[in-house]
Amino acid sequence: MKKIGSWISILSVAVALAACGQDNGNEAQNNSTAEETPVETLDVALDTPENVEKGEKVTFTATVTQGEEKVDDADEVMFEVWKEGAKEESEMIEASHDGDGVYSAEKQLDEAGKYFVQSHVTARDLHTMPKNEIIVGSEEEAASESHEHEHEHESAVSIHLMQPEEMKANEEVMLMAHLQKDDAALTGADVRYEISKVDEEKAEWVDAEEMKDGEYEATTSFKEAGDYTVTIHVENDEGLHEHTEENLTITE
Known about the structure:
This protein is α+β, with helices and mostly antiparallel strands. It has helices spanning 2-36, 139-148, and strands spanning 42-47, 51-52, 56-66, 69-70, 76-83, 91-94, 96-99, 102-109, 113-123, 126-128, 131-136, 157-162, 172-181, 184-185, 190-197, 203-207, 209-212, 215-221, 226-235, 241-250. Helix content is 18%, strand content 50%. Strands 2, 5, 6, 9, 10 and 11 form a six-stranded mixed sheet that branches. Strands 1, 3, 4, 7 and 8 form a five-stranded antiparallel sheet that branches. The longest helix is centred in the first third of the chain and has 35 residues, at 2-36.
């Protein structure tokens, strides 16, 4: 009888271990499936008019969705506006949230010519920045303006620097740049930040690391409060070399 009891005990333990192994296997499979589930992309439908009159106030709207869901919790939605050939003079306009995933802003365009409007949307750890064109004034006026800038370079790479809300001297500051080319994240680039205080020639160079597709981060600190210029340099093995400047203000 003791032998039978021993065999029953051994059999019970074996069954329990097998069940445990099966449970762990199922759990591992479930975890693996969860890890492999792709993140829904962030989609932005940028709506701007194609032609407007000089002096007309224009409304820009960006409808943000993720899959079938309207995104009403975006971290940042900005509209960048510039005239052809004057990207360095672009204006960033903060959008208001209208509900149902819609964000909007207005701007009056006074001069004839071709303008570019680019929405910078950051939400749910994702970033995208589609771009549209607007013709202001008559076709003849716009064509004349474009002719004056036909030999100027319009960058194919979109660069957007994310800045912390507050940056203090002698504290670590994380700079993040989002890069996009042909409506897709620009990956595998060499990105460096050239940082100099306004009216000073000495510059500090900081290498950035690609943390996600098209997202390049670097950490630095500023010894003094004041206004700084950050030039973001972008290169890759295909001969790309682009740069853009951003201004930072560091407080005490």
